[in-house]
Write a structure and sequence with these properties.
single chain, alpha/beta, Rossmann fold, five-stranded parallel β-sheet, two-stranded antiparallel ribbon, 9 helices, about 50% helix, globular, binds BIS(adenosine)-5'-pentaphosphate
Amino acid sequence: MRLIMLGAPGAGKGTQAARVAAELKIPHISTGDIFRANIKNGTELGKKAKAFMDAGKLVPDELTCDLVADRLAQADCAGGFILDGFPRTIPQAEALDKVVAELGTKIDYAVNIDVPDEAIIERMSGRRACLSCGATYHVVYNPPKTEGICDTCGQPLVLREDDKPETVQTRLSVYHEQTQPLIEYYGAKNALVSVDGTKPMDEVFADILKVIGK
Ligand code: AP5
């Protein structure tokens, strides 16, 4: 199955994409995680992406689309994949359509996780992220077993640079301007399914499996 996760920053895309990927045994591809790994490793891509990310803006399409095209051409994606954080603009969605058509396939579902802006601000301030393996926690809703330490890889958890309240506000504006139009885009292709992302995490997960027929 080939899936896209749509939703505002902090809607729960990463949380749910990881669970769905494990359930369906398909790779979870997060462009945000790929950029953060590049920043951590000091690559050229990371240096270019950092300034945009820290400001809450989108990394330019030309740095993003080829990276995803290369990743989707890898062998582990042949049986399906779940994209988290891509596409984020109409040009990215058009680029993705081209890539999947060249691979002789199509996107089965774009899963929209619906959460109002008010709930987002609260979630982001409580989020803690592992920059080593990409796992995400919340101090109240999904705490790690040991405070400040990743359950999966044992590395320290951090408040992401772009989770500061003023940057979250910019990211929400960017989302409404540039990413929200994708809801209509995938609706027109009859690929859009939506879930209420304000419910508890386990319920959101169960709802996603239901809307994708699993
Ligand atoms: P990215 O990492 O993709 O960030 P984002 O889309 O802003 O999404 P987040 O990771 O912030 O949130 P999420 O929806 O995954 O929520 P999560 O599951 O963590 O991108 C970061 C930056 O990289 C962008 O701003 C941009 O600069 C750049 N970038 C990336 N992709 C790009 C692209 N394609 N083009 C251009 N630039 C790109 O959940 C949030 C919190 O809420 C967590 O603490 C979680 O535990 C908690 N939570 C989750 N679900 C629930 C629930 N049901 N109830 C209560 N709490 C919950």
